[in-house]
């Protein structure tokens, strides 16, 4: 069918559904909800059989939904209505929630129901929940609704609050009055629910050192204690704040914008507060192995089992600053000294990596210089992985990856993806040529022609399509927990396989042969020549595009690469 996706942003869920529908043979168009007249014009040109809205914050005009079937994906169970469904679910401590696909009508979220899927509410931030359990349920529900529409026989179920399975309700916007933390009274569990319900937007407005900030993220701390509300420690850019019965970690802050002042954006908490405000507050590190055995916040953890080393990393939004790259590189080098023959890289959930940290770069005194430092730190990390010849390295993608994050994964010997993962193996939309040795790793996996197409078209690639291209080696179904169970089983099978020694010898020989044909240093130099131009060239679009991305500047029209 011809299916037009209408979305307020081409976000992770919209990309997921875009990829799922494309691999099923549908012709997909995308239109960002930037105005009713633009939408009317696009509908007239595209002539869709069906309009599907995976993520929409604006109403569809009546003259469109009255002439076309328009299906809205709503992150709430049957009967749930309102703009803050997930916020309310998390703040209330719901164990289960749902996604409903309903038909657009005059009243918001009140149309006939085409599909509904439940999901468990994992104890995590709203954005992480959205990209995992919500996205999985939304994809199932949307695909079922599309199948039902295509059959021409399905009759959608009218919203009827007298039905036993309709348990939702109309809920108001989850404003800051519902999020406010009372540090003198709220327990750690209550504080975490409030923090997690606001992550990553809009955050929780609070006061620190006499100034107002939005708090982003929220992680339990098992040992540190202090006066409720006080900042009692820092760690790798995060701050730890005491509660009445424990403490929580806050990885990111956003200063409240002053009237007429510049726009603000999320940054590592210690970067926002600065050394003067944090003077006297101790940095409390945690070791890689210790972090894996405790309930505390850490971006890096290490576990070992049956000659397999698992180096876990998790960075907010998948962005990796210069400092984060350097810490991960140091951890990787340490792991390479361990008595293991298989190394598995990747977070337990959520983003694998999205490459360089655009927010940290935007906040730098000299963004071009910080961009250069960041890309070189990424290159150092990728080079270390590519140069590892005595261990089999597996990149395990439980979640999405983009740009340099995809190329970080491709540096490994094997790339294993959860079935729900979406990859964006390109840099073009940020005005960058790209680095991370992509001119070596991408063509050797998919060929020169496909590499050129993937980077030129700049469209998301679902895990199954990526497997078909040779971009990834294995696709594993199930939840993030089920994915990691399979990863551990298969990695440990690899580590004990008699042919592993031969495979490592072949790996060493191939790396040496490739080095003779063209050294890794030559790939890096050629890429960095282009990147230098991107960072310092007079007419290059990178700085403008980065600024627009960081400050969430709304596009004036749907980008050309999304027009089918």
CATH-assigned fold name of the largest domain = 2-enoyl-CoA Hydratase, Chain A, domain 1
Share of β-strand residues: 15-25%
Low-pLDDT runs of 5+ residues are none
Structural class: alpha/beta
Helix proportion? 25-40%
CATH class value of the largest domain: Alpha Beta
Instruction: Note the gap between the termini.
Output: 13 Å
Specify the CATH architecture of the largest domain.
Alpha-Beta Complex
> How many discrete domains?
3
Largest sheet: 6 strands, mixed
Contiguous helical run count: 20
Number of distinct beta strands: 23
Tell the overall outline.
globular
Strand order of the largest sheet: 2-1-3-4-5-6
Describe the structure.
With 564 residues, the chain is of the alpha/beta class. It has 3 domains: 2-151, Formyl transferase, N-terminal domain (Rossmann fold), CATH 3.40.50.170; 177-277, Roll (Methionyl-tRNA Fmet Formyltransferase, Chain A, domain 2); 299-480 and 489-550, Alpha-Beta Complex (2-enoyl-CoA Hydratase, Chain A, domain 1). 40% of the residues lie in helices and 19% in strands. The protein is built from 20 helices and 23 strands. The strands form 5 sheets. Strands 2-1-3-4-5-6 form a 6-stranded mixed sheet, with helices on both faces. The chain has a 6-stranded mixed sheet with strand order 15-16-17-18-20-23, with helices on both faces. Strands 7-8-13-14 form a 4-stranded antiparallel sheet. β11 (238-242) and β12 form a beta hairpin. α1 (12-23) packs parallel to α5 (126-151), α12 packs antiparallel against α19 and α14 crosses α15 (448-457). It is globular, with a radius of gyration of 24 Å. The mean pLDDT is 96.
């Amino acid at each position: 069918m011809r299916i037009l996706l209408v979305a307020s942003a081409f976000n992770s869920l919209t990309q997921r559904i875009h990829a799922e529908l494309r691999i099923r043979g549908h012709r997909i168009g995308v239109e960002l909800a930037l105005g009713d007249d633009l939408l009317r014009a696009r509908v007239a040109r595209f002539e869709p059989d069906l309009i599907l809205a995976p993520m929409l914050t604006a109403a569809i005009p009546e003259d469109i939904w009255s002439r076309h079937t328009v299906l809205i994906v709503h992150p709430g169970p049957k009967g749930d209505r309102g703009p803050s469904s997930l916020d309310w679910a998390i703040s209330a401590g719901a164990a289960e929630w749902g996604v409903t696909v309903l038909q657009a009508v005059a009243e918001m979220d009140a149309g006939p129901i085409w599909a509904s899927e439940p999901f468990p509410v994992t104890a995590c931030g709203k954005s992480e929940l959205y990209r995992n359990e919500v996205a999985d349920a939304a994809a199932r529900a949307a695909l079922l609704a599309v199948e039902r529409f295509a059959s021409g026989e399905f009759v959608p179920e009218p919203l009827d609050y007298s039905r036993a399975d309709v348990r939702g309700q109309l809920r108001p916007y989850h404003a800051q009055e519902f999020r406010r933390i009372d540090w003198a009274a709220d327990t750690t569990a209550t504080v975490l629910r409030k923090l997690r319900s606001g992550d990553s937007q809009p955050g929780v407005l609070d006061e620190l050192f006499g100034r107002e900030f939005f708090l982003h993220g929220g992680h339990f701390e098992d040992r540190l204690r202090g006066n409720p509300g006080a900042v009692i420690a820092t760690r790798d850019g995060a701050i730890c704040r005491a509660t009445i019965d424990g403490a929580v970690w806050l990885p990111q802050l956003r200063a409240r914008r002053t009237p007429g002042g510049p726009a603000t954006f999320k940054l590592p908490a210690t970067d926002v507060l600065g050394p003067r405000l944090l003077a006297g507050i101790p940095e409390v590190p945690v070791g890689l192995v210790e972090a894996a055995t405790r309930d505390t916040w850490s971006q890096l953890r290490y576990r070992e089992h049956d000659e397999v080393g698992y180096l876990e990393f998790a960075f907010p939004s998948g962005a990796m600053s210069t400092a984060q790259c350097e810490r991960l590189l140091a951890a990787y080098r340490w792991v390479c000294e361990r008595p293991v023959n298989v190394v598995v890289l990747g977070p337990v959930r959520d983003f694998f990596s999205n490459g360089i940290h655009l927010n940290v770069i935007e906040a730098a005194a000299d963004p071009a210089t910080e961009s250069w430092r960041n890309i070189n730190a990424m290159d150092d990390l990728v080079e270390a992985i590519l140069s590892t010849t005595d261990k089999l390295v597996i990149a395990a993608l439980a979640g999405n990856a983009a740009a340099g994050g995809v190329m970080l994964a491709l540096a490994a010997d094997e790339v294993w993806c959860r079935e729900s993962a979406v990859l964006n193996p390109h840099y073009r939309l940020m005005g960058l040529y790209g680095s991370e040795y992509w001119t070596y790793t991408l063509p050797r996996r998919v060929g020169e022609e496909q590499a050129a197409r993937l980077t030129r078209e700049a469209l998301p690639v679902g895990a199954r399509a990526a497997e078909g291209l040779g971009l990834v080696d294995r696709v594993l179904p199930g939840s993030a927990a089920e994915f990691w169970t399979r990863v551990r089983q298969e990695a440990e099978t690899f580590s004990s396989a008699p042919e592993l020694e031969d495979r490592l010898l072949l790996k060493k020989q191939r790396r040496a042969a490739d080095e003779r044909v063209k050294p890794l240093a030559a790939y890096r130099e050629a890429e960095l020549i282009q990147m230098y131009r991107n960072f310092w060239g007079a007419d290059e679009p990178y700085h403008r595009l980065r600024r627009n991305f960081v400050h969430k500047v709304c596009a004036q029209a749907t980008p050309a690469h999304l027009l089918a």
